[in-house]
Amino acid sequence: MKNTRIIDSAERLVRSLRRTSAGRIHDKRICDEEDDTFPPGCVLCKDTGFQGFEPEKVCTYPPKKKPRNQALSAEEKAENTMIASIRLLVEQVISGGKRCRIVHEVFRNTTAQFDDLVMEIACGLQNFRTTLRYNTFA
Questions:
Q1: How far apart are CA 36 and CA 6, in angstroms?
Q2: Would you call 79 helix, strand, or coil by DSSP?
C-alpha cells in the first residue's frame, strides 16, 4: 500500500494526505489522478518518482541526473545536496508516521476505507508529536 503526502519541511508537518493506493501504481500516476492543488508560488522539492510532474504555478526542484560519460558541475552537485537535505527532513516526517506499528507492517484488514483512516490517524499523531516537540508554549 502507498500513500502520497505533502510535507511542510519548514514546520515538519504533514499538510496533505492522499488516499491509499496499491503499491504497484507509480507515484506520478497517483498524483496525476488526484489532481493536487498547491498554493501559488510554493516550492516543491520532489524525488525521482515524480519525474514529469509539473503542477501549475509551482516552482519544482528535481535532483539533477549525471549525464552519461560526464560529471555533474560543482553547482549542480551543490543543488542536489540542498534538495537531498530537504528530502531528508521529509523522509524523517514520513518515518515518524510509521512509528505506529499498524502502518509499517502488513495491513490485513479488508474493511472499506479503513486503511485511509489508519494512515490519517498516524499522520495526525505525528503532527501532534511534532507540534509538541518544536513549539514552545508561553
A1: 10
A2: helix
3-state secondary structure of 128: helix
Beta-sheet strands, E only, within the chain: 5-8, 13-17, 43-45, 59-61
The per-residue pLDDT for range 29-62, each reduced to its tens digit, is 777 777 777 777 788 887 777 777 888 888 888 8
Beta-strand (E) ranges in 30-121?
43-45, 59-61
Provide the residue range defining the domain that includes 62.
5-134
C-alpha Rg value of the chain to the nearest Å? 17
Strand partners, 6: 16
Structural domain count, the chain: 1
Q: Report pTM.
A: 0.73
